Amino acid sequence: MKGLILTGGKGTRLRPLTHTRAKQLIPIANKPNLFYVIDDLVAAGITDIGLIISPETGEEIRAACGDGGRWGARFTFIVQDAPRGLAHAVMTAEPFLGEEPFVMYLGDNLLSGGIGHLVEAFEASAPAALVLLTEVPNPQQFGVAEFDAAGNLVRLVEKPADPPSNLALVGVYLFTPAIHEATATLSPSGRGEYEITDAIQALIDSGHTVQARRTRGWWKDTGKPDDLLEANRLVLAEMAGRIDGDVVDSGLTGAVVVDAGARVVGSTIRGPVHIAAGAVIENATIGPFASIGENVEVTAATVEHSIVMTGSRLCRVPQPLVGCVIGEGVLVAGDTARADSLKLVLGDRSQVRWT
Fold first, then answer.
1. Which residues contact 151 (CB under 8 A, 6 or more apart)?
2. Other CB atoms closer than 10 Å to residue 224's CB: what's the count?
3. What is the pTM of this model?
4. Where are the domains of the chain?
5. What is the CATH number of domain 239-353?
6. Does the first or last residue of the chain, that is N or C, have fewer Cβ atoms within 10 Å of its Cβ?
7. CATH label, 2-220, candidates 3.30.70.270, 3.40.50.150, 3.20.20.80, 3.90.550.10
8. Which helix (H) or strand (E) covers residue 33, if one does?
9. What is the CA radius of gyration of the chain?
10. What's the rounded Cα separation, in Å, for the pair 185 and 188?
11. How would you list the strands of the sheet with 302-304, edge to edge?
12. Which of 69, 67, 70, 75 is nearest to 48 (CA)?
């Protein structure tokens, strides 16, 4: 079985962060979102993996992932000339996929519990496709499943005005080569895209078996800043504490990771918190639910429920930084109080100062 990870897309809902990086490389608990996806595939025994990349961010994805050797995998990079839908990505990857079954996994999704059980179910029952579903409060924004009285999946509809259920497609799909026959019949939807829901519906309509499973734990699509923060919270909540760096005259509670090379001095750390290598935390309060990236400096500041990326500096910030996503190389500094708290989404190399 092969893997297919989709890493294209413009990430417009995450700007300004995605002006300077691929959205799949934004860190969750100090690890790029994409790496969790790769981990899931490899843990399920899938090591021949194609990555759909865009002309705009493809080189960044290549540089971050390498040839796959660090995972014991082999990567093939496949350029999709434009983001024309998930089914178009399958069509673009068909020469790589050939006649083998495969897992398609969206590179900006996070899923607790891995996908090993899905692969096992797929191989045991041999349907033409297996889709993963979860209950959502806003099914109008997703591909939605409809079942008959016997519990059989009979219809999938993309972003329906009148949803037949609240069960939405999650960004993990398992297919046999029959999907290629289905994609060959498609025309662009009203959105101008080749919809994977239409391709799966074509399988159902032609008599193929399509099975559905529900998520066992949580699932997140990290397409917006609030989604990033929620994903960060969920991953940190499952983390075990570990102190490999230096902690001096500080109080730590809960699950706290301080990587080797990080230094915490005169501070309060309220887990779950992850502090990456090279970070310096001094006279600060961190957490809960904060990830502090490599070589970040936090001095005389409070950071909660936030993501702070590599090389940023938060110095003498009088208000708590709560619910922030702060890019690389950002400076936030000042002395004069202006509000009860700050909620910031800052792109790389931004500067915010108080005078």
1. none
2. 14
3. 0.90
4. 2-220, 239-353
5. 2.160.10.10
6. C
7. 3.90.550.10
8. helix 33-43
9. 22
10. 10
11. 251-253, 268-270, 285-286, 302-304, 321-322
12. 75
